[in-house]
Design a protein that fits this description.
Strand order of the largest sheet of chain A: 2-1-3-4
Structural class of chain A: alpha+beta
Number of helices of chain A: 10
Oligomer: homodimer
CATH topology of the largest domain in chain A: Glutathione S-transferase Yfyf (Class Pi), Chain A, domain 2
Helix content of chain A: 55-70%
Strand content of chain A: 5-15%
Mean pLDDT of chain A: 92
Number of domains of chain A: 2
């Protein structure tokens, strides 16, 4: 098939949580697509710069030659276009607002705190950041109890918007746990989330698109080494 | 009517762009509601802390005693609940994604730059920030041309999501222009936006909820003076 005939393309990277979540959304809806690996950190392709000239970031979904940017918005788009498959967002407006609230919280508040872990200059600073990351997880535990209503996922019986968005960070949570000798997702402190994590990682939609933890760890060490040598 | 019988309440502040945009959304949909003025900067009420325990911020829409937080999400909620009135978001998924892209850009990229104006330490730093604010407006000019398709508003014949979100900052744009002796919205550089601004400010949905520029300026000077005296 010639590239111009391909209806759905995803410009992404195997290691990016933002890209992984879009892959999960497409998989949930059984949308056939071409995955185009872009360089995560540098040497952005002309194709990416043309598709996302404002933010110059992956992921970009290209559907009928039109680019859709920003992973949360791409998931909403997928849900609105491919209405045949299982829903990503709930149908009730209040539940939709709640799902959007938590995905926004995860991306704008919780994840930026987790990113600070790398920058923490000493053990004390690191402990403070870890405390905040865990505070966020405790809030998300309460959100899980409320949203799942005793079922397996935030989305109920199936994975939904919050599952996909929070779950997309799992690979990096595992890397940080491994590198820092930490336990972020703890069965005693956040039993709901710990159980959810296991179910999520073995879900059909997830396991095929989720990167190998060892491969992610290797990638992390490589990027870190490159940063140190160019600093 | 006893407060518990009121179906829709808005915890907001007359001077907050985030609150003003929700007022516009409710007005567009002709939703009767009780407006509850909250302190913008300090002394947060127990009511607000209970309604938005995570971010502790206005606006919060309370509908059937359930709180909905985050202004962009509240506008989506209003659009989904009160479907009888004019639409806030477009119906086409690609146009919805585009509208969400620009509202997210405005709130997360453009407005944070504008906020730096206050912190600029000297004329050079100020000129750099102004340059970036204007760069953003030039992007928004192009977005206006694309989204409005020759009609009056981003939303076409009527005000929509981008109109409400960008327009909610108008009061503060005018304050910054007035305080700094600037012209941010310029008819030569961004003719589409300049014309749009006039139409927007005289629109039914807008003019009744929009604060008087002189009142906003007074408020700005008061807050600034309070900051200086407490620094």
């Amino acid at each position: 098939m010639a590239p111009s005939d391909v209806k759905v393309q995803l410009l992404g990277s195997w290691a990016s949580p933002f890209s992984i979540r879009v892959q999960m959304g497409l998989k949930l809806k059984s949308v056939e697509h071409e995955f185009i690996e872009e360089n995560f950190y540098s040497n952005k392709s002309d194709r990416l710069l043309k598709a996302n000239p404002i933010h110059k970031k992956i992921p970009v979904l290209i559907h009928s030659q039109k680019p859709i940017c920003e992973s949360l918005l791409i998931l909403e788009y997928i849900d609105e276009v491919w209405t045949d498959g299982p829903s990503i967002l709930p149908s009730d407006p209040y539940e939709r607002a709640t799902a959007r609230f938590w995905t926004t919280y995860i991306d704008q508040t919780w994840f930026p705190i987790m990113k600070e872990l790398e920058k923490a200059a000493n053990d004390e600073a690191k402990a403070t950041v870890i405390g905040k990351v865990i505070e966020g997880l405790v809030l998300l535990e309460a959100a899980f109890v409320k949203c799942s209503k005793g079922k397996s996922f935030f989305g109920g019986d199936n994975v939904g918007y919050i599952d996909i968005v929070l779950g997309s960070y799992f690979g990096w949570i595992k890397v940080l746990e491994s590198v820092g000798g930490l336990k972020l997702l703890d069965g005693t402190r956040t039993p709901g989330l710990a159980g959810w994590a296991e179910r999520f990682l073995s879900h059909n939609v997830v396991k095929d698109v989720f990167p190998e933890p060892s491969k992610l760890l290797e990638f992390y060490m490589m990027v870190k080494a490159a940063r140190v040598s160019s600093a």
